Amino acid sequence: MRLHTALLAALTSAIAATPACAQGAGERPIAFERVSVVPMDSERVLADQTVIVRGERIETVGPAGSVRVPSDAVRVDGRGKFVMPGVAEMHAHIPAQAGENQERTLFLYVANGITTIRGMLGAPGHLELRARAARRELTSPTIVTSGPSFNGNSVPTPEAAARMVTEQKTAGYDFLKIHPGIRREVFDTLAATAQRVGIPFSGHVPLDVGLGRALEARFASIDHLDGFVEALVPPGGPSTSQFFGLNLATEVDRSRLPALVKATREAGVAVVPTETLLEHVPAGDIEAMRAWPEMKYMPAGVIEQWTTATRNAQGNVTADQALAFVGLRREILKALSDGGVRILLGSDAPQVWNVPGFSIHREMQLMVAAGMTPYQVLSSGTRSVAEFFGNAAEVGTVAAGKRADLVLLDANPLADVGNFRLQAGVMVRGRWHPKADLDARLAALAGGQ
Questions:
Q1: Residue 92 belongs to what H/E stretch?
Q2: Measured between alpha carbons, how far is residue 45 from residues 82, 327, 401 in Å?
Q3: 270: pLDDT strictly greater than 90
Q4: Considering the chain, what is the average pLDDT of its residues?
Q5: pTM, to two decimals
Q6: Within a 10 A sphere around the Cβ of 289, how many other Cβ atoms?
Q7: What distance lies between CA 9 and its chain's CA centroid?
Q8: Which of the chain's termini has less CB crowding within 10 Å, N or C?
Q9: Which of helix, strand or coil describes residue 35?
């Protein structure tokens, strides 16, 4: 049986109300002076640069001595600091119900340097949120959103699948979210209809579908490394999968991995690992996780739900099994990355132990622990995301003409990916949020618990 519903249900609906974050200096140009630029077009740092932002766009990037700062610009001292593109959370969730809880969740993403999110369980109201974010009417990342879930209950028949695909395409969702439980014949109709109407699909790999068929059907992305552990089990091995193959980690044949990596690369299917969820639930130290600083932004009741769900999950697995599962997943991720598969940054927030925004920092560090370099990890949230969406001319790197989605850091993230936490401010679509403003609103959120 797959990840229990209880592990996917806890959201931020009880976060206390707080006023909207200040939107910065209107339309005055903003100058980041004498800053080191991490452009993310390659693994390099450009020292002593000045970056001018006007409106939603980067106007100029150049050596500090040769860039004229407009007289009316807001000047940001960049000495000793590093500016890079904001990152994406490619497996995000937004509360379904309209209201303050949605806006507070979106703010938590922004407050941690996330300037784009891909909402992986959409609702009709998210289409209006997407439009409001694009119009800069709220403090929010750019939103890409699925529609409601395709699963064994919502699409029990091929006819239901075809109808739901068409309805979501007509409604204007960006992609389809696939959940477990879909039968093979239903999936085949779903995939054929999606390809015919021109809408991508991403998410889980239903057991009846399997990784091979998912690659053949060209999922846009496979999330959670779903289906990979199961595909490593030789024919005739155990057929029941629990928690993304947790029970199968000691039954796999690693010699099958190179062929899976090759097939994934050739299919052009991206992978979103979400290691924070898949490592912390079976193998995390519950008391240590409860004490993480970001837990102050979550309601006590939600933390208790997470605690209970994790204890129940860990009660069904031995420590050796959990460690074998974590080690295998890291091995798969490293092989996929080394093999040229597009890796996309995503943590599955706000699911179990994943506080929105904060969890992406933990995800980055787990990806490094799996053997990826800081540059590879940062690319998975910047340039690779832009390439995945087909808008690399718009975002993903720091260059003149690009959308001004930026993060100002106190230390070089290429030296240590943990430095991405050390943020002096975040800019979303040209709106500058200095650390003092972000901290003030975060304090209000924590104080409202």
A1: strand 87-92
A2: 9, 33, 19
A3: yes
A4: 93
A5: 0.93
A6: 18
A7: 17
A8: N
A9: strand
